[in-house]
Amino acid sequence: AEMQKGREQLRKNRDSKSVSLNETERRQEKAKFEARTTAHRKDREARGTTPPPTYEVTLKNATQPGLGEPMKNPKPFGKAAIKAAVDGDEEGDDATPGDDILLREAEHILSDYADLLSRETGASVTQR
Asked: Is the pTM of this model over 0.90?
């Protein structure tokens, strides 16, 4: 129900081609938007989510089929790990494979690509 209200409000705002020039009204609109955004953020944080599994890919296990076993306790993505990934800092703050954002994104892209290939060709993707 709450999501439906949010979608309707978003659709209404998107379809509106005008904005109030009255400063008081505009400030009220902005305050309502910020309150909704804050409430949604708090709601998402309260629900919490289980992060996707993290797999360690090394030269030793790269030739084996599948992804292997997920890592038991990967470090969460902290600000230091994100900064290290963006700056290209190889040594940054006890980085582990669980911290490598670029590696995780590459994993997602390859997984999606393999899924698309199998749908298009009806074949499965295997490793040679």
From this structure: no
